[in-house]
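Predict the assembly for these two chains.
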Amino acid sequence: MASRDVVHYDTPLQRILRILAAVFVVFYLIWTLLPFVVMFVSSFKDLLAAFKLPAVGDWSGIGVFFDFTPTLTHYQTLFYENNFSRYILNSLIAAGGSALISVIFGSLAAYSLSRVDFRGKADLFFWIISTRMAPVVAVMVPLFAIFRSLDLVGTLPGLILAYTTFNLPFAIWILKGFFDNVPYGIEEAQMVDGATRLQAFWSILPLVAPGIGAFLVLCVLFAWNDFLFAAIIGSGGAKTLPVATRELVQPQNIQWGAIMAAGVVTTAPMMLLGLVIRKYLVTGLTMGAVKE
Amino acid sequence: MATVTIKNVWKYYGQTPAVKDLNITCPDGSFVSILGPSGCGKSSTMRMLAGLEHISAGDVMFDDVRINDLAPKDRDVAMVFENYALYPHKTVYENIANPLRLRNASDATIKQRVSGAAKVLEIEHLLERRPQELSGGQKQRVAIGRAIVREPKLFLFDEPIAHLDAKLRAHMRGEIKHLQKTLGTTMIYVTHDQLEALSMADYIAVMHEGELQQWGTPSEIFNHPVNAWVAGFVGEPAMNFVTAGLVGEGDQVILTHADFEIPLLPSQVGRLNGAAKTGFARMGVRPDALSISMTKPAEPSITGKIFVNELLGGDMLVEVQLKDCRMRIKTTPEFAGKPGETCHLTVNRDKWHIFDAGDGHAYF
């Protein structure tokens, strides 16, 4: 799906609006990026330097922000005293595990919904999406009760299951769109060539791979950044990064330095992931949108 | 290599019948064409033979085995699809090798068979390319290669050359016919182009709105169409139809019209049954069974005014306006008549047809 260069002829008014739009974008960029920059820089400052501010109105004092000696003490606190390497692992396992399970079962379900016609299909499909419409907070208490009776609270499998409940309908919904876009001819040719239905399914996976890849990234992102499920269902044995960061806010002492470092540790992997797959993300997300 | 028998086959899509009570027997090793316009049920028939559609009623037999309940992979058929259905992420070599890989053939066998197929189709230099890098004609040959690499019981070709340009189509007609004769496998070829069917097939099954209209050799279909619809569908330029009256005068029956009165040949009078002797009928005559002249001939002829001349290279097509319709005549390019001039047409009565004015079935 490529965009075309639409021909346009600007009136003077449109030219002014165009400049204003550019200015707006610049401010918007500063607004969104500034917290990350502050967090990143602060994680390397010792606490005294972190709280140094120039006087109000003193724009030339902006150099004060960058006037410090970088230190790694906060990162050391995280990894040696607060066991953050364990929490990174938990986040990875929970996010990766639920993404993988969602994609495997989701692609099989999406394929059947796309290819097979059966009674009640439209109702089934709507029901699947409707589970995603429910606000998470509303189902938290009953979900917790169910998980506790199954001894799943505080375990990684429990957390993976909890994430999958919300990722799976999303997977089915999006992947069905991708499968709809694959012409029937290829599977039919495979079946006449001698493939079973499952082999034919396997053979068209490379064609939906960008979509599956994009979806995997979204799944991982959702689970990695999630606080609610991790705090309630994962509490104790399956602590993930957001929950662990929250615990750095203690009644007697808010460990700002460690919090900044924890913030960097939590957001950096996702940012890197985004940069790496940036090119494929848009293709993957829009693949199911337009039927060619 | 198999005899394909289609017995009383019906196909319903919901409540709509797409194929109605079809009965066809394709002899072993023959080239059978299923010919008909869009929506006549030919693709549905082919897909039922391949196993891609359920058969609503009736039996399909390969030799003496009933194959209704077999999955496509167990039927041992090879199919070439209208839009080729090549695997986009595989090379041409892998595309052609795919059926063999699915049957766990050894790498050596695969290499030998694929190279053999590529040689026959002259695509050896394309084996490492992907489908996106091929032209339409090349893609079509890859699709054919994928079908012939297996030596199946039956070939199913679903309008394979429909999307090629006219010159390439003409070339591929000969190539495909030669290929089928060389391999000797039964082939069922679906097309809407009557020229393809006439030039390539040993037998043609003409279908219209789900029903088989006529089964026969190309010569039988062309020279002895069983009804007006088949007569009008087959042959280019199309047959001329004129509604005329039938009047009996003693032993003779005369075809009467505002612009002509032509008696039937004695042998043809007997072929009309009694009911048609007085009444109306449709006369059908092909453009090349008419001759045109600017002077009135001695024998009974049709009088009309020239409407337009079309030069077709080696022939000239003249359209003549009669009182209620137009007729087209094929003549030599030297014909000198101009639009607006009166002309006279003589009918070759060995080659004309009379169809029933009601249901269109042919008397002769």
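The radius of gyration of chain A is 24 Å. Chain A has a mean pLDDT of 85.
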